Amino acid sequence: MEEKHLIDGIQPSQGPIYPEDTIELSSALSDITEPGKVVVPVGGATRLQIGAKMPHYDYALDLSNMNHLVAHNSADLTCIVQSGITLRSLQNQLREQEQFLAVDAAFPGEATIGGTLASNAPGYLRWQLAHMRDMVIGMQVVLPSGTVTKSGGPVVKNVAGYDMARLHIGGYGTLGVISEISFKLTPLPPRQGSLLVGFQSENELHNFSEEVFDSYVMPLALTGMNEHLIKTLQIDAPRCRYLMVIRIGGRQMAFDRQLNIMNKMVEQYQDSHTDFLEQNASDRLWEKIRDFRGYGSISSITGRVFSTPTRLRGLLRDMANHFEEIGSTLAVSIQPGFGTMEFYIESLLAEDKTRPTQVIEQIHNIARQNQSHINYEKLPPDLKIGFNMWSQINEGSLGIMRSLRDTYDPDKKLNRGRYLTDKEDS
Amino acid sequence: MGQSQSLKMKDLIPELKRIVGDDYVLDDQADLLVYEYDGSIDRGNPVVVVLPDTAKEISQVLKLARLNSLPVVARGAGTGLSGGAIAEHGGIVLSMARMNQILEVNRSDRYAIVEPGVVNLDLSTHVASEGLYYAPDPSSQRACTIGGNIAENSGGPHCLAYGVTTNHVLGMEVVLADGSITWFGDNERDGIGYDLRGITIGSEGTLAIVTKISVRLLRLPEHVKTMLMSFETIEDASAAVTEIIGAGMVPAALEMMDHFCIKAAEEAVGAGYPEGAGAVLLVELDGLLESVEEESEEIEAICHEFSPLEIRVATDSLEREKLWSGRKGVLGALGRLAPNYYLVDGTIPRTKLVDVLKKINEISERSGYPIANLLHAGDGNLHPSILFDERKPGDVENILAIGAEILRICVDSGGVLSGEHGIGLEKQDQMPLMFSEEDMATMSLLKLAFETEDLLNPGKVFPTGAGCGDISQARAIARVGPGAYI
Fold first, then answer.
1. Which of A131, A199, A426, B218 has the fewest CB atoms inside 10 Å of its own CB, making it the most exposed?
2. Bigger pLDDT: B13 or A388?
3. What ipTM does this complex have?
4. Would you put residue A170 in left (φ > 0), alpha (ψ -120 to 50) or beta?
């Protein structure tokens, strides 16, 4: 067993399986016929901590050997990949033709494309370039029975049949195992860089981001963060309590124009502080931001809130107030263009064992009050018991989700108990 | 449609009138004729047409239909061109014409909530004063509805840069087959759980009836530049398209029309297209002024490699609108060239444009039927339109065979059966060209997960005979594994 196959301290009862291609993947799944056996598809294992704690599991279905770029049709701006290819390997190969896949999940050296899609991994390249599900134009999936199916195709526009790939992006491998994906690609911007703007107040941060949102500037990525995160990431941003990092790209003249527009906007913020990073330094900063997925200790918590751009203002304020009241620190980043927020708690473990649970409940209340939803990227294993991330979903949708799960994985072979609670997934 | 269905329906009409009101239930044969057709070849008469005003009314209608095992087909403007909105099995047509309100526009968060009967262009017109627009713009945008766009995952000329309908819908209120009302997604750009919103878009009304839609709005660009490039041959124009995309440029729109389309558009609207040209490209760039100017210079340089007859740039919004009026009106204008046209909708890799158009031309010459080529060339979406006269014996059979041959060429070239009009009735028997039996069985299972009675738009998408009756076979595949079905 590899270390990466240990999930919340649970190791598989059987040896791992390493399929080399779709045929072997299909055989592996169809060969597992004993009732009650649980299979967990594994990519780079960078996001296996998400989900409820399983009672047990039997097989790690490790896709890391399915790691080929099957086709790169650069003149069509499309490619086909096996799901076990890492983001870095893919981007390096695409870069040779001055193209890239607009997906920037953390730890690209380990994270696989399949795992990134299945776990709906967060990324920052979404302001201008949209969600990663919008880059998927076709998908091959192996069902729990071993049946190989496909939908879509290697063309950029397609409405033939149901868009089955949608079910597997963010499906956490509960309906099938992604084996191959067709993507549409983006030309690399000839010029890139980042503007850093430091502020003294939360309000200024929000006001500035709303101004950018309302302008003709089209950043590749934009994120704001509070001083705890600035310190944690060791970003050189003196004299500011809040920081906005804006990544822009394009042809030279358009690039300069966007920079000018933002520099002009900044002038009205008296205590603001700006810095500009050229491409290499900018890339290094974004790698740092992207790869911070939370504190390392077992008791740390990383959460992701789905909201709308304007609701982020209330969310950030309420969360900050709550953590000030309980005397804990909270590191936060927001993505105003996309309406998401991530929060990082170093530790909540205290003598009073009920306290972490109460804090989690209070965070949920704050999210509810701000009409938002939370997903935990990392929770201490003890706090995971009884945790049901689907509980925020309305009953109507949940009914269809249960029906889909029953239909495609009637024996609950894939990821049993990890993404639906025992009650729903038994 | 059986006689028993008609008799059953007679008993239900008072109940339907109680639900939606006397004026909103149509069962007169003359009224029903309006709903038999969607511009494609197929026809089918519903037994009754119901025009609901709320999700609650739809819920009640669906409960009644379910109790009586009657099929229900939702219908927007009927512009889909693939037979998706035709009531092939009779039953109830739910016309969304009355549910046409824009319920909310949130400028700060850039979304709008609309009812499904809102006409596509009306939404962009409504939000233009806020500096916003709704990006998907099918050619029929003056008539087609947002609900219909969701059913077909519609595209349009500007989808090259901005994506199709699925890329612009945040959430939707739906009525499920059992009459329950729920939301898939909401106003957030990401969420938790299976993407039920995404899977419903493009499902041709077979999974749920959409009653409210939250759509993403975009900021109107600072600058727009529209250019018309004319070429001696369609091969030159195609090669220019391949070169533009290959150079890493993705204009807002990149459309192509051949000499038939040019002639028809000129006669109909006088768009100012050069009549002697073999093909024209309509290229639109938008964004920051600097970006548009840099890219347009590069595109012009590329086009010069293919000896253009003319490159014209619209100098103001009036000229721009005139150039687009030809493109958007060309389908209607084809009626000037022949009594009927049959529009084929397939997508191919953009690098295959020259080869595929050459083959389509050969088919036209061999068969004697003129084929007008209208393309969303930038994304490889072809609309060869076969000109014919349905009154001539054999014409309909012949053009259907030609359409099937063109689609086979698309699939053989690495393409797909539909880019934006869906499968509907028209292409259901061609699905095996693209999908294996396992692929289609897996899709059928999706329908089963949403509803077991197969009452929502039955008999669409899948090949004839692969409907409800084959679902048990589909389930067997999922449970037993590959080989079980064959």
1. A426
2. B13
3. 0.95
4. left
Average pLDDT over residues A249-275: 94
What pLDDT shows up at residue B468? 40
Q: Strands A340-345 and A301-306: what pairing?
A: antiparallel
Q: Give the Cα separation of B466 and B422 in Å (integer).
A: 17
User: What are the residue ranges spanned by the domains of chain A?
Assistant: 1-188+390-426, 191-289, 301-387
Average of pLDDT values for A215-229?
95
Size of interface A-B (CB pairs under 8 A): 271
CA atoms within 13 A on the CB side of A256: 4
What pLDDT, on a 0 to 100 scale, did the predictor assign at position B2? 62
> From the list A133, A154, A162, which residue is nearest B446 (CB)?
A162
Residues in chain A closer than 8 A to B446 (CB atoms): 162, 164, 167, 404, 407
Q: Do A157 and B380 touch (CB under 8 A)?
A: yes
- Name the strand (E) or helix (H) holding B311: strand B310-313
Q: What confidence tier does A370 reach under pLDDT thresholds 50, 70, 90?
A: very high
| DSSP percent split of chain A into helix, strand, coil, nearest 5 | 30, 25, 45
Residue B375 DSSP one-character state: E
Token pair for residue A41? 């598809």
CA-wise closest residue to B327 among B149, B165, B168, B141: B141
CATH of domain A1-188+390-426: 3.30.465.10
CB B70 within 8 A of CB B455: yes
Judging by beta carbons within 10 Å of its beta carbon (0-12, 13-18, 19+), is residue B44 exposed, middle or buried? buried
**What are A308-323's pLDDT values in tens digits?**
999 999 999 999 999 9
Q: B75-101, pLDDT tens digit by residue?
A: 999 998 888 999 988 999 999 999 999
pLDDT (tens digit, 9 = 90+) per residue, A151-205?
A: 998 898 899 999 999 999 999 999 999 999 999 999 999 999 999 999 999 999 9
Contact B26, B48 (CB under 8 A): yes
User: What architecture does CATH give domain A191-289?
Assistant: 2-Layer Sandwich (3.30)
**How far is Cα A39 from Cα B404, in angstroms, rounded to an integer?**
43
pLDDT at A421: 52
The yes/no answer on whether domain A301-387 falls in CATH 3.30.300.20 is no
Q: Which token pair is A90?
A: 């893919």
* Residue A121 · residue A108 · CB < 8 Å: no
Q: Cα(A205)–Cα(A331) distance, rounded to whole angstroms? A: 15
User: Is B81 exposed, middle or buried (CB count within 10 Å of its CB: 0-12, 13-18, 19+)?
Assistant: buried
Task: Give the closest-approach CA distance of B18 to chain A in angstroms.
Answer: 27
Give the integer Cα–Cα distance in Å for B62 and B59. 5
Fold match, A1-188+390-426 / A191-289: no
Q: Interior CA angle at B214 toward A372 and A139, to 5°?
A: 85
Which of B193, B203, B475 has its CB closest to that of A162?
Answer: B203
Alpha helices in B189-258, H assignment, sequence order: 196-200, 234-246
**pLDDT tens digits, one per residue of B385-442:** 999 999 999 999 999 999 999 999 999 999 999 999 999 998 999 999 999 999 999 9
